[in-house]
Amino acid sequence: MTFTNNGSTQEVFVEVKTTIRRDRHFIHMSANELDLALKEKERYHIYRVYGAGDVQNVRLCRIKNLAQHLHSKSLELFLFV
User: Fold this and answer.
1) Predicted structure pTM score
2) What is the sign of the dihedral through the CA atoms of 51, 52, 58 and 60?
3) Which label site among 1, 15, 20, 24 has the fewest CB atoms less than 10 Å from its CB?
4) For residue range 1-24, what is the model confidence (pLDDT) as tens digits?
5) pLDDT tens for residues 32-81?
6) Does 25 have pLDDT greater than 90?
7) Paired sense of beta strands 13-19 and 44-50, if any
8) Which residue pairs from 57-61 have beta carbons closer than 8 angstroms and sit at least 24 positions apart in sequence?
9) Which contacts (CB < 8 Å, 24+ apart) does range 26-35 have?
10) Contacts (Cβ under 8 Å, ≥6 apart) of 49
11) Domain boundaries, the chain
């Protein structure tokens, strides 16, 4: 997404991950998505939609700068084999 404010342009990368469940806290990310998150840092946002399709109970969580969250250990990355 590109935003223009007072003549300056800002580009933000937005990844939207949805689930119909309200308690599914893990997110599948591809290697390319993770590479981009680590490269773009504060310009990479994940929007997690819980309860997708349920107008009464839908909930949105925004994660800005996934790389910083991983480095500060406020979020964890898991590998399933």
Assistant:
1) 0.83
2) positive
3) 1
4) 998 988 899 999 999 999 998 888
5) 999 999 999 999 999 999 999 999 999 999 999 999 999 999 999 998 88
6) no
7) parallel
8) 57/22, 59/22
9) 26/78
10) 16, 17, 18, 19, 58, 59, 60
11) 2-71
Amino acid at 38: L
Q: Up-side HSE of residue 24: CA atoms within 13 Å toward CB?
A: 13
Residue with tokens 């580009």: 11
Sole residue written with tokens 């937005």? 14
Contact call for residues 61 and 69 (beta carbons, < 8 A) = no
Vertex 21: Cα angle to 59 and 51 (nearest 5): 30
Among residues 38, 39, 60, 65, the alpha carbon closest in space to that of 49 is found at: 60
